[in-house]
Specification:
Blueprint: H1 4-20, E1 27-32, E2 35-41, H2 44-47, H3 54-66, E3 75-80, H4 84-93, E4 97-102, H5 110-113, E5 124-126, H6 131-145
Parallel strand pairs: 3-4, 4-5
Antiparallel strand pairs: 1-2, 1-3
Helix pairs in contact: 1-6
């Protein structure tokens, strides 16, 4: 059976693609009715675009796949807690569920919003899935930069 850990492993594969391209290793997968409808990984450096985060690229692909601007039946799996920019895009997407791996005290949406939830009121949020694996990839990336 496909569960949150199964899909987070796929998001980690996307994050590894970013790592291999010297991008901050964050990966995302959008799932609907047990089918992957979109994938993405950070491409900020490649595209020279500060908005080219894994979540943004994945939901944009999902919109195109569905021919819709909303994702209320979809789940986003992302290896790191979304930043403020991504949380705004996810709010407007009306995504049904967000599952993330590693918490990010420094750059997550919580840095600006505190305990206020910036997501759509119907969005379900689950954090800490495969947290150690997701955090380890981030730590390895930043250690490589030093």
């Amino acid at each position: 059976m496909k569960d949150d850990e199964y899909y987070m492993k796929l998001a980690l594969i996307e994050a590894q693609k970013a790592f291999d391209k010297d991008e901050v290793p964050i990966g995302a997968v959008v799932v609907m009715q047990d089918k992957i409808i979109a994938k993405g990984h950070n491409q900020v450096e490649l595209l020279n675009d500060c908005t080219a985060h894994a979540e943004i690229l994945a939901i944009t692909t999902a919109f195109q796949h569905l021919g819709s601007k909303y994702l209320p039946e979809a789940t986003l799996y992302v290896t790191v807690e979304p930043c403020l920019m991504c949380s705004g895009a996810l709010y407007w997407s009306k995504i049904g569920k967000i599952v993330f791996g590693a918490y990010d005290e420094k750059n997550s949406y919580r840095r600006s919003t505190g305990s206020n939830n910036p997501f759509h009121p119907k969005t379900v949020m689950i954090g800490g899935i495969m947290e150690a694996d997701c955090a380890a990839l981030m730590k390895a990336f930043f250690k490589k930069l030093r």
